[in-house]
């Protein structure tokens, strides 16, 4: 089984390569960022890419974005994400990419049998999820995104629902227009409203508020 590893920590990367070797895998490349991961997959065409979520330069979701790009360009490449944290939105995006994917917490990789089993299952087209990830996804699914808004963000969204402009919202809440714009940007992020030429995010946010 040919494997490409993407992990920004040198110590973790070397440790993971050693574990994969012990599991009988052939590590054809080990890289430290998302762009290098995509390049390595293009060059080596591995059966599976083992990927960390947070990597340089911003340490947010570079690994996940690279993994999703790989699934678009080379859909036959399985993806096994190893993260230190349970990140529901990342896991949901990964699952939406179809079969042959997995999401495990990093403390599981110390268990060689579980790592070997996970690799075999994703390469065979299956899905592997850490129990903590499953629990978080179920909780996230039951929770309305509006519930994640802060009290101030709720005030801002309530005024948006009344049709107030940013200037009027700032005047009513006695905050600057820059602060209003920051709150609105945070609201869009928490409600999962990415920039789009087809949808008006302000209207979509208000509709989410009214539904809640």
Any key phrases for this structure?
elongated; 6-stranded parallel β-sheet; Rossmann fold; 2 domains; 212 residues; Arc Repressor Mutant, subunit A; single chain; 6 strands; alpha/beta
Architecture blueprint of SSEs:
Elements: E1 2-6, H1 10-22, E2 26-31, H2 34-44, E3 48-52, H3 62-73, E4 78-83, H4 88-96, E5 101-105, H5 112-123, E6 127-129, H6 131-142, H7 151-161, H8 166-173, H9 177-190, H10 201-211
Parallel strand pairs: 1-2, 1-3, 3-4, 4-5, 5-6
Percent of residues in beta strands? 5-15%
Q: In terms of structural class, how would the helical and strand content be classed?
A: alpha/beta
Query: What about the largest sheet?
Result: 6 strands, parallel
The averaged pLDDT comes out at 85
Briefly say what this structure is:
By secondary structure, the protein is an alpha/beta fold. The protein is built from ten helices and six strands; from the N terminus they run E-H-E-H-E-H-E-H-E-H-E-H-H-H-H-H.
Write up this protein.
With 212 residues, this protein is an alpha/beta fold. It folds into two domains: 140 residues, Response regulator (Rossmann fold), CATH 3.40.50.2300; 67 residues, Arc Repressor Mutant, subunit A (Orthogonal Bundle). 53% of the residues lie in helices and 14% in strands. The chain has ten helices and six strands; from the N terminus they run βαβαβαβαβαβααααα. Strands 2-1-3-4-5-6 form a six-stranded parallel β-sheet, sandwiched between helices. Strand 3, helix 3 and strand 4 form a beta-alpha-beta unit. Helix 7 crosses helix 10 and helix 8 packs across helix 9. It is elongated. The termini are far apart. The mean pLDDT is 85.
